[in-house]
Each structure stands twice: as C-alpha cells, then as structure tokens.
Fold this protein.
Amino acid sequence: AQRVTQPEKLLSVFKGAPVELKCNYSYSGSPELFWYVQYSRQRLQLLLRHISRESIKGFTADLNKGETSFHLKKPFAQEEDSAMYYCALSGGYQKVTFGTGTKLQVIP
Amino acid sequence: GAVVSQHPSRVICKSGTSVKIECRSLDFQATTMFWYRQFPKQSLMLMATSNEGSKATYEQGVEKDKFLINHASLTLSTLTVTSAHPEDSSFYICSASDDRGSMLDTGELFFGEGSRLTVL
C-alpha cells in the first residue's frame, strides 16, 4: 500500500523566512513524488515533481529514499506563497495518493 | 496548461435524489480520468479510475452502485451519486492527464474546480 504523510496541518512563517513543508511516504517500489498547490479559490495544480529536479517559484524538493521523505523547501517565503500544499505519490501509471495537505501562511 | 472543467460547481439536492457531475477535458484527450472525494480537513481520497469505453475501477470501500461513473468519450466523464443521502455531502474533484504522456511517465494531473454536493 502507498501512503503519504504530511505531519503539519498549518505552517506559519514570516515573509522572508525559510520554509520547509514536510512529506514522508511509504511505498515498496520506486515512487514518483509530486507537490501540488492550491491557491485561494483556485484549482489544484502541479508545483513540481521529483523526476524533473526543477525549481518552481523558488521551491525545491529532494527525494530522500533513505528517509522516505520529499520535503518542500524555499529559502525566503513570500506572501503569495500562502496556499494549501499537497504532497503526492504515484506508485503506478497515473494513480496518485495524496497527503492531507499543509496550509502555508506567510505573515507579512 | 491543459484545462479540466467540472460542472456543476455547487449542487444542493434532496435526500433520495440522484446528482450527476460532469468532468471535461477541454483541450486534450484523456482516456483515463480520476474521481476524488475530499472531506473537510482531510486528504483527497481516490474513489475510482474512469476508463473511456470500459468499466470504471473503484477503490476499496467505494460502492460502485452508489457512485456510477460513465466515460463515454475521450473528453467527458460523469459521476452520478445515486439516491443521495446527507453523508454523501462532500467535495468531489476530478482529474485527468493528457493521453500524449508515455506509459512510463505518470504525467501531470490536471484538476477540475471541484463540485460541492450538499444533500439535505
């Protein structure tokens, strides 16, 4: 079974402070990991995926297979980063399991 | 990016009635679409995988006779909540990925806006 855990429901940081949204997963094979973001009153959308190893809007995430983690990081938070963030795992073709989400609140 | 449209965005119905929710991929073809349910402050729970031209694949614990899924074309999947009851009240979201993605590429999922169902 595949499982995704996001331990924090809410994370509040000040503007300019570093951000780390935690994500741990459980999967027996080689997973594909993603971060999805939902801004206020908008639909869920892909932020980044681990296979592309890219930085989107200043966010990065490294897959750590030893710790089974895929934490999302940004060195300097901006107010427009305030949103719901979902970590997701795909263990097979397109079937995706989501974490419970973390609400990021950036305080001006 | 690709757009997935869901309709209606909100629906209120009486207990015992059936409600249909549509999910359309507007500018791409999607052989496979996914239906999720989200309870307040909980994760997105995959309900079923909708396959064009064949029966949907339901996740464990999801009643297929309760949640009827029809995927009649490459751009449209419908979810019908039959004989709805108050406990069916929830936020339903569909997603799809472009068929042009390779089999080895899980592909980016594009999400609809979601449909909030309230059963009185």
About this structure: Chain B touches chain A at residues 1, 4, 32, 34, 36, 41-44, 46, 49, 93, 95, 97, 103, 106-114 (CB under 8 Å).
